[in-house]
């Protein structure tokens, strides 16, 4: 029998919730409110004067071809990172879940990269793929493949996608492995006795049972690709060459910090927040219908 806890009065429940409410209010609602307020203003570079301009910042941003290019870069980047990180993590989790020698060591090594900061992970990839000093960069040039992500936009985009996806694989791996270990072995053994081959067992039994985990990770990975990859892009390419790797989150930084256009930067952050909230709502509205818990 489970004992049901009933609080006497409302003071204690609110007191227990207070730390989380304070953190959420200070670090999310307050900055979000400031961004929304700032998106309707136009300030000088020194913040000495402010003028209310209504929706003019939004009109200027949406008419900027560089911003539209950054939006397309974000679509390519975020979808590639999410699909790549989820696919590789699922493959590694399936392999690590097998009864093989040294499986615990493999699992530990696959989890470690998640502890690496995004900027540090980007520097590691920089040392590997730098055209002059990188191990793989020099090797590619040595075999006749012209590799220089500093001047080739497609190569730069490929590099930041690989670095960002590699950083997220460990996080996805943890959840996929936990989901695989929660699947009853009796179900898989019964399917094997019935003659189902490993590939068929995966697509008809394992993958459907991982649907809740996959849906959760899909939402998390899209949010990660939109927001948490700034450090990776900044350390590797700084949005270049040209605007080839400039995403929406990086454009917010460029206009707000480098160009000191605070109104446009605030408007871009509001648009980005609305896009992510909208994508999350769409996923819960349509994708979750196909998830069986």
From TrEMBL:
Keywords: Cell inner membrane, Cell membrane, Membrane, Transmembrane, Transmembrane helix, Transport
DNA repair as UniProt keyword: no
All copies of domain ABC transmembrane type-1, residue ranges: 71-283
Subunit structure: The complex is composed of two ATP-binding proteins (UgpC), two transmembrane proteins (UgpA and UgpE) and a solute-binding protein (UgpB).
GO biological process per UniProt: transmembrane transport
Entry-linked InterPro entries: MetI-like, MetI-like_sf, UgpAE/MalFG_permease
Family, similarity comment: Belongs to the binding-protein-dependent transport system permease family.
Gene: ugpA
Ranges annotated as spanning the membrane: 12-32, 75-94, 106-128, 156-180, 201-227, 266-287
Protein name from the UniProt record: sn-glycerol-3-phosphate transport system permease protein UgpA
Keyword Nucleus in annotation: no
Record-level GO cellular component terms: plasma membrane
Membrane topology of this protein: Multi-pass membrane protein
